[in-house]
Automatic annotation (TrEMBL):
A GO MF term: hydrolase activity, acting on carbon-nitrogen (but not peptide) bonds, in linear amides
Taxonomic path: Bacteria, Bacillati, Bacillota, Bacilli, Lactobacillales
Species for this entry: Enterococcus aquimarinus
Active-site residues, record numbering mapped to chain: T151
Protein name stated in the entry: Asparaginase family protein
InterPro entries xref list: Ntn_hydrolases_N (IPR029055), Peptidase_T2 (IPR000246)
Length: 318
């Protein structure tokens, strides 16, 4: 039977490469999501997820994460987590709880300690220096403090037909203390139904949460639409509505996969994503929005692009 994973951003590729190897050997979608997202959370050069994530306005890293099991709709989520090493692991554990399955702030660490999960200081020296530099830029150049909202989101399908999804993010760089975006919110940042498919989002959470686009994408797939058609319609229709009513629309990017392993992507900005299936080796793609609002232009990322990406994220911070 088919299996596969799709995920937002280049940073997800190593994780889904390892996780889809496990899927090929009969592993579960639930474990694939947790293991793949953990790899992203643990890599210190990814500045928008986990260890190395950029801090809020007071220099504190606050992390959000969520997990959903498409077989039974169980959801676990955390927001404003400050000291848990792998928020996705705690989110998955919380998905088994009948009550209190979404925890915030200090409650996340208290639960993690009780359950034996690892805690650590999540602020790296690199992230701290980036934060200090931004404070100087704001002070001297009157720049907007906000920058970056690259959530890692993944959807997985295993050989039994079970599907799961998950998200993890440090949120908007320089965000207000306690700010939460769409990433841990069911229907907005993520949604999955094993009888249909799943979707997950990245972009400006304050705008994404207005549309519940992950749920809408899954709903449309449930009517028989291919994931590409479903995610495109859900995303672009709402982006147009938001522009008409609010006068502007932030960055929107969504990925989707159905229970046959077919996939799709929609975006209103340049966007990278990764896919691996039983028919496709782990591949990093770039998507560019179409000027006429149609399906995005999608191309395989070149080695030149990949090399430049790696050089950029690992370059010394002065």
């Amino acid at each position: 039977m088919s299996y596969g994973m799709i995920a937002t951003w280049r940073m997800a590729c190593d994780g889904i490469a390892a996780a889809t190897q496990a899927l090929a050997e009969g592993g579960s979608s639930q474990k694939a999501i947790v293991d793949a997202i953990k790899m992203v959370e643990d890599y210190p050069f990814y500045k928008s997820v986990g260890y190395g994530g950029l801090p809020n306005e007071v220099g504190m890293v606050e992390l959000d994460a969520a997990f959903m099991n498409g077989d039974n709709f169980d959801i676990g989520a955390v927001a404003g987590s400050r000291s848990v090493k792998n928020p996705i692991v705690v989110a998955e554990k919380l998905s088994h709880e009948r009550f209190n399955s979404f925890l915030v702030g200090d409650g996340v660490a208290k639960y993690a300690i009780k359950e034996g999960f690892e805690l650590q200081n999540m602020l790296t020296e690199r992230a701290k220096k980036t934060w200090q530099n931004r404070l100087e830029e704001i002070r001297h150049s009157n720049l907007s403090p906000y920058d970056g909202h690259d959530t890692v989101g993944m959807v997985a399908l295993d050989q039994t037909g079970s599907m799961s999804c998950g998200t993890s993010s440090s949120g908007l760089f320089m965000k207000k203390e306690g700010r939460v975006g769409d990433s841990p919110l069911s229907g907005s940042g993520f949604y999955v139904d094993s009888e249909i498919g799943g979707a997950t989002a990245t972009g400006l959470g304050e705008d994404l949460m207005k549309g519940c686009l992950s749920y809408e994408t899954v709903r449309l797939m449930g009517t028989g639409m291919h994931p590409q058609a479903a995610v495109q319609q859900a995303t672009m229709d709402f982006a147009k509505r938001l522009e008409r009513r609010k006068g502007k629309c932030g960055a929107f990017s969504l990925v989707a996969m159905n229970n046959q392993g077919e996939w799709g992507v929609a975006t209103n900005v340049e966007f990278s994503f990764a896919v691996a299936t039983d028919q496709l080796a782990p591949t990093i793609y770039l998507a560019y929005p179409a000027e006429d609002g149609g399906n995005p232009q999608i191309e395989v990322a070149s080695q030149e692009w990949l090399d430049a990406y790696q050089a950029r994220i690992t370059a010394p911070i002065k």
